[in-house]
Each structure stands twice: as structure tokens, then as C-alpha cells.
Amino acid sequence: MQITKHQLAKGTKFETPYYIIKGNTAGKTVMITAGVHGDETANVLAAKKLVDLLQKNVHHIDKGTLIIVPIVNQIAYKRRFRGIPDLNRTFPCKPNVAARHPLASELFRLAKQFQPEWYIDLHEARGFSKIDPSVLGQTLLTNPRSEAIPLVKRIVNHLNRSIAQKSRQFSIRIRHLPGSGRTAAYRLLKSNSITVETSTSMPKAIRVEYQMKILRYLLNETGLIKDERTSATA
User: Organism's domain of life (predicted)?
Assistant: First the structure.
């Protein structure tokens, strides 16, 4: 396994590190982004924790390539606000149409370079989707007709079996979000794209753990790591 650190949007005010982790043999390519919105912090901590565990060889990429961008929007993250404009509405919506923000353009260029089979965008949202279907806390989202739908269902079923408190269980939302990284990767790169939304109504440590469990399950399913699944706890 080889881990290298790089800089996205190098030399600009949007510069932010990302990591490329390559296994010893060929396999799928998975891209993970976090910190698109600066006021969502548990997803950033989960992405950083995953990098740390890989660097310590606690988790090991056996085959394939993993790209992790732990804090996409450094400026918004330092100020702990969503970001103006909302970065997750500025990704390209059509072929040959540019992104509407330099950082979205750089991130999409990176995705286009690696053509990931899987594009995972980590987020957080208010409330609990099981109580109020209009909110996104505790949901996994993917696009209509996406080949990611069966895996999303397996992840949600796997998590919910061990979450005793039904209000904290995960839901599935299947919808496009034009301008988002998820939908841009799906429509323009043909990636299997998933958005993870843990609920900010829970303690941060629990949110980080849910994000980590989802990532471990997904990396196991895509063949990048082996025997790393653990059950979620409420």
C-alpha cells in the first residue's frame, strides 16, 4: 500500500490537502469527500480518522485506489459556516458546462482524472429523517436508476439492525440534486455516487462512528479492504 499527500487548488486561497492510497494490485477506485459545508464537522473528523488509520496501517488497502479529500472547503470550515455560495450547488450539471466555483471546478477535475467507480460525499444534516421525512439527518442518498441503490439498501439494513432507537435509524432517499458533487459524478462520470448524512441532533462522537461504519462497510463491499465490517450501535 502506498499513501501520497497532494494539494487541491494548489497556490490558491482554496488550497486543501488530499490523499491517494494505492493498493498493491489493481481494483476499483473510490473517492471520498468531506467538509464541502464548513459547519458540518463530524464528517471531516471521520475522513481524517480514516486517513490516520490507513497511515498507521490499522486499515490496509489491498487492491484498488482510494482518494480522500478530508476538508474540501477550508475557508468555510475555518469559519464553521455552510459557505457562500453553497459549494454543493456549483458543480457542473451538463457536459461541457463549467462548474460555477473554482473549488468545485478543481474537485471535479480531480474526480474526472481518476474516474472513480464510487464517489462518496460525507455530510451532516439536522433532525431525524425517521421522524420528519422532510429533513435529511440519518439518510443515505443516491440517484434514480443508480447501480449504487442495492449497496445503499444493504448499508442501511446493516446499520439499522443494531440501532435500537428507531428514531435514530437511517433512511434512504433516491433523488437527483443538480449542482451537487454526487449528481455531477453520477451524470457526467457515471460513478456510483452516495451522499451520507448523519444527524447533528446526536453527539459528535456517535456521528463520527456512524460515518466510519458506513465507510468501512463500503470499502469492504468494493473490495478495497477486507474483514473490516462492524455493526453500528445506537
Answer: Bacteria
pLDDT for 230 equals: 45
The mean pLDDT value of the chain amounts to: 95
More confident residue, 56 or 234: 56
Q: What element of type H or E holds 73?
A: none
Spatial separation of the C-alpha atoms in residues 226 and 192, rounded to whole Å? 20
pLDDT of 176 > 50? The answer is yes
In sequence order, the 6+-apart residues with CB closer than 8 A to the CB of 71 are 16, 17, 34, 35, 44, 47, 77
Q: How much is the pLDDT for 227?
A: 62
| 85 upstream amide cis, omega within 30 of 0 | yes
Q: How far is CA 112 from its chain centroid?
A: 16
Handedness of CA 71, 110, 223, 176 (dihedral sign): positive
Pick the closest to residue 187 from 108, 103, 74, 87 (CA basis): 108
Identify the bridge partners of residue 140 per DSSP, sorted by sequence position: 172, 196
Rounded Cα distance, 44 and 123, in Å? 9
Domains along the chain?
2-221 (3.40.630.10)
- Written as nine digits, the cell of 180 is 451537487
Cβ atoms of 123 and 196 within 8 Å: the answer is yes
The dihedrals phi and psi of 37, each to the nearest 5 degrees, come to -105, 130
By DSSP bridging, strand 63-69 and strand 25-33 are parallel
DSSP reduced 3-state for 90: coil
Residue 231's contacts (CB-CB under 8 Å, 6 or more residues apart) are: 158, 159, 161, 162, 213
